[in-house]
Amino acid sequence: MLARSATDLLRDLSVRKLSSVELTQAYLDQIKLYDGQVKAFLHVDPAAALARAKEIDDRRAAGKPMGKLGGLPVAIKDVICTKGQKTTCGSKMLENFVPPYDATVVKRLKEADAVLIGKTNMDEFAMGGSTENSAFFKTTNPWDKSRVPGGSSGGAAACLAASMAPLSIGTDTGGSIRQPAAFCGVTGLKPTYGRVSRYGLVAFASSLDQIGPMAATAEDAALLLEVLAGHDPLDSTSANIPTPEYTKSLSQPFQGLKLGLVKEHFGPGLDPEVEAAVREAVKVYQSLGATVKDISLPHSKYGIATYYIIAPSEASSNLARYDGVHYGYRTDEKQMLAELAAERKSLEAKQDEKGLKNLDTALIRLYRKTRAEGFGPEVKRRIMLGTYALSAGYADKYYLQALKVRRLIRSDYDAAFQEVDFIIGPTAPNPPFKIGEKSGDPLAMYLEDLYTVTANLAGIAGISIPCGLTSGKTTGSPLPIGLQIQARPFDEDRLLRAAAMFQRGTDWHTKRPNL
Ligand code: GLN
What we know:
The chain is of the alpha/beta class.
């Protein structure tokens, strides 16, 4: 039952062949059995989930109107606020943060009669591509537990692959929905900037962040996006345009579908097995009637450099609020004051005037210690990078320059979409790597995002769908490979159709790991 698609399960729920309590219990059992090894979840509250499922079942039995998700469990990345439930962002800084309100997406999920099954693990503040940066524990890849699930929405993707939830919500600032979807063999959609409200999403880089659906199939992702998307007066960046009924048009055929293959996507660094699977996927589309054209995104080679200026710059500003005063973790004040007094005493004894002049005030020391203890190393790296890129004398050279290149990247896409309907290529340059393999080398980790960051910089939509498995010759066990499809802004409707078309012609999306 757990390997079935959400759409399929919903059909049984709606005719009461299956109850939400039974279904929720089955996923909770699966979590109990396997999450000890996969570690996808940071928090699960079985009693609350079952009570909610029962309430939905009762309402259905009484013939009351049902929301679109009618009793389906949904997992939520722990960067999205859930009222009364811990929301840690994978950080010690927010270890005990219990939001007093629901994010708009959570509100919508509740209104659609979803059962919130748990909060999923992630890289701290969504900074990372492997979920190794979580302050709590590392999530493993259900296909090979010595490997990473991708990140930062690693828990969100792994819980789907391990059949611990039928639907999952992720966030994507530079690839964090698409890359873990690729690594875990599931479907993940990054909507257009503005498509989904971010009210109640803890901000990483506000001009790039988007919330999006993750699921087993494009059809399930369409169902979930229908619930998530739409204008929200509480998020001034959310677009005031109607949300199409994505599930309705999924099987509509394309007339003269044109796909673009980006020549810059097939350069050095691309794993041969990933390349072969992507080229095979291209053939599948051709056999379904698509024409394929070679195109160029000439500025995409600056994508990583541009992203790793803009994202940390925005992060350094967004994360300034975690200072131990407004909210979040606070260092042990008594100990801090005692240390400060001891330092002052010793400086006074040495009559060190300069030392005394430079000594922190209590407030500055509180900020300093709180931030030193509350943030992990990658978050600190980003804050330093961003602060540097924005500082007087360097802002023109780095930050403003990056904004100009960002504009060029968007223009490349605009030109490409004059010629083709969609751009297809690899989601990530390689299959899932070993835990620890890249964690000591930030640059190698940043290169994971080679093919994904440009969609965020341009604000367009992108999806990753399973398109193959490695042979296992070099990797030990077969590992998932993801195909990325990118679309014009607000073209999710057709993007999901193109993904569904592929999934009707292939069965990669039905493969599940042997747990
Ligand atoms: N891996 C990228 C980073 O570390 C993307 C993260 C994300 O999309 N949240 O910034």
